[in-house]
Amino acid sequence: MNPREQIFDAVRNHLPAEKIDYPQIPVFQKTITELLPAFEERLLEAGATFFLPADLKEAQQLLVQQHGGGSVICSATPDIKGNRDIRKVKNPHELADVDVGVIRASFGVAENGMVWLTEEDLVVNALGFLSQHLVILLKPTALVADMYDAYVKVSLEDTAYGCFMMGPSATADIGAVLVHGAQGARSLSVYLV
Amino acid sequence: MAAKRVDPAANAAAFLDQDDIHEPAHDQNLWAARMKRDAAAKAIPEWEELRNIASQIKEHTLTHLDQYLEQFEANATKRGAKIYWARDAAEHNQHVWNILNERKISSIIKSKSMLQEECGMTQFLETRGITVTESDLGERIQQLDNQPPSHIVMPAIHKTPADIAKIFSKAIGTDPDNTDPHYLNEAMREDARKRFLQAGAGMTGANFAIAETGTFVVCTNEGNADIGAAVPRVHIASIGIEKILPKVTDLGIFIRLLSRSALGTLATQYTSHFSGPRKGGELHIIITDNGRSKRLGMDDFWHSLKCIRCGACMNTCPVYRRSGGLSYGATYSGPIGIILDPTFDESKYSELPYHSTLCGSCTDVCPVKIDISDQILRWRKVMAEKKYLPISRRLAFTAAGRIFERPTLFHGVETVASAALKITPHFLLYNRALNPWGRHRELPHFAKQTFREWFMQYKLKNQEDKQQP
Q1: Is B390 exposed, middle or buried (0-12, 13-18, 19+ CB in 10 A)?
Q2: Residue A193 and residue A53: Cα distance in Å, rounded?
Q3: Could you tell me what percent of chain B has a pLDDT over 90?
Q4: d(CA B272, CA B226)
Q5: Distances from the Cα of A91 to the Cα of A159, B197, B276, B279, angstroms
Q6: Maximum C-alpha span of chain B
Q7: Cβ separation of B56 and A23 shorter than 8 Å?
């Protein structure tokens, strides 16, 4: 027997005699009714910030205003123009010097301020993690209430990678003091547009 | 040769005695996490129901584990991941080495994985010339200090910022007197960046593996697992066979429970779902048993396989908070460690079940309702039956047994003990070296009379009263 068969054999021989049924999962009462204000509040709690530009043109101006002209800006969405073309990136290492990554998320979660980013949204996954700062575009109507609804909406069958991102990178590993910008993005701004 | 028996009480004494800074800070930081957990739990009306459901999903999965493992394997393979099976730590490490060696990879960056700790993987790879860098900040601190993690989610929580400043000054040349966590974090971020970019492979563990889609989920706050998976071409993930969940929608329940239980936060900053290799990359998944199938067959202990590694039982445990995670001398510390570690080596970890007050707080906070404190008690029974008790404790218990068997002897001893306590000098009872536990505790005062003395006196008096006309 190869190791795989031996493991299956060992598991089958040791299965508890009593089989437990998969539980009935009730539909829980929603505690959040106004999604956008809840989402905004939770973004701040997670260490993120949010902005409400009137349109994409204003969003573009806001980006320049927020991050200045000298930055390397790489945008994965046609809605915002950067100065580094992500479609030309052959190797993720090329993104090591990116100051600002711009990505459009397909939806957010009001319960905790998460945004859902897939490999298709990121174009190159490393953009979400090597960029020093992130700007996430999100339609203010593209929100679900909680994680139950969120997992109905993701389709993991259709993407090799998906991430619920809740604010910037964080750690409290030194003296239990919260610090942002541990390994991933130092800041995360959500443009609700 | 049998491994040396771990003495958690002596280790705890060393932690308590080092100074008056470490233990109180440790205690406070962990208790703060427990309080945050309570607030987060209270904010969800269905919290207790969620714990029940999560427990039942885990029990269902574990009692049908063969089917779900097959399903996970089939789906992950279909999506392009390469699956490897490892019966034990040696096979796990060999798979990793083969993958790296075939590709001539000499340095890897890894995120936190308790399974890789369990397998002693880092040491195995280092002796074969691989440079291994821990990317989680807490794990990196521990790696540089040549220590294992002391806590499942806060690996360096037993250290103060001053300790860490010293370690970093030696390792990466920071100012040894600058203990500002922001400064120290920034310095390590800069150092880690280079390593992420140089690494030939990124390694992760997994918090959950979904049979329905062949996806595995990794939760971090730093985003370090994602950099490791997104930058080097090769991603290797180590997954214990007990990590399986049946369906994607199960994550709605488990993700809500995990970080609220761990740190009292609504979720980790990053909850990442890997369902196949990224464009232009390779994904290798090593599904590992390492004693888990054996544990599944232990009637009294298989529920410990439900554990989702949140660390809530550690944060709440009065013994853990006082003694520090390293005192358990094992990969897993705290209450969950007490019930997991003996399944790896009964003799080596035979003292651990006594490193508990059996207060039951761990059971109360466990998000998947593992009966941790009951299992600790059952492990004591196992240790006693197998005569693993150290001589001193065995003699004490035998003596107690003899005394309780003979009432006259008991009454004599009771009176003597009470008298002895009165004259034993305070410095002896509360001496740090002789009794570190006595440091912050007063023994209860013995009653002036024993109950029996009072009862006999009362009975006598009563009889006298009755005899009076």
Answers
A1: middle
A2: 6
A3: 81
A4: 7
A5: 19, 11, 18, 10
A6: 105
A7: yes
A23 by Cβ neighbours in 10 Å (0-12 / 13-18 / 19+) ranks as middle
**Tens digit of pLDDT for each residue in A83-106?**
999 999 999 999 999 999 999 999
Categorize the per-residue pLDDT at B264 as very low, low, confident or very high, splitting at 50, 70 and 90: very high
CB-CB neighbors (< 8 A) of B154 in chain A: 172-173, 176
ipTM: 0.98
CATH number assigned to the domain covering B44-290: 3.40.50.10420
3-class secondary-structure state, position B243:
helix
Query: SS3 for B135?
Result: coil
Q: How many whole angstroms separate alpha carbon B419 and alpha carbon B165?
A: 51
Cα separation, B149 vs B333, whole angstroms: 9
- Which of B30, B79, B273 should we substitute to test contact with A (largest number of A Cβ atoms within 10 Å)? B273
> Contacts for A22-26 with beta carbons within 8 Å, 24 or more apart?
A22/B56, A22/B57, A22/B60, A22/B246, A23/B52, A23/B53, A23/B56, A23/B57, A23/B60, A25/B53, A25/B249, A25/B253, A26/B49
In this predicted model, what pLDDT tens digit does every residue of B55-109 receive, in sequence order?
A: 999 999 999 999 999 999 999 999 999 999 999 999 999 999 999 999 999 999 9
* pLDDT surpassing 70 at residue A41: yes
Distance of CA B424 to the CA centre of its chain: 38
Q: Which domains, from first to last, does chain A contain?
A: 26-192 (3.40.50.10420)
For chains A and B, what is the number of CB pairs under 8 angstroms? Answer: 260
Query: Any idea how long chain A is?
Result: 193
- Which amino acid type is present at position A159? T
Model-wide pTM > 0.95:
no
Residue B458: pLDDT band with limits 50, 70, 90: confident
Instruction: Write out the residue limits of the CATH 3.40.50.10420 domain(s) in chain B.
Output: 44-290
Report whether B215 contacts B275 (CB < 8 A): yes
The verdict on a CB contact (< 8 Å) between A169 and B269 is yes
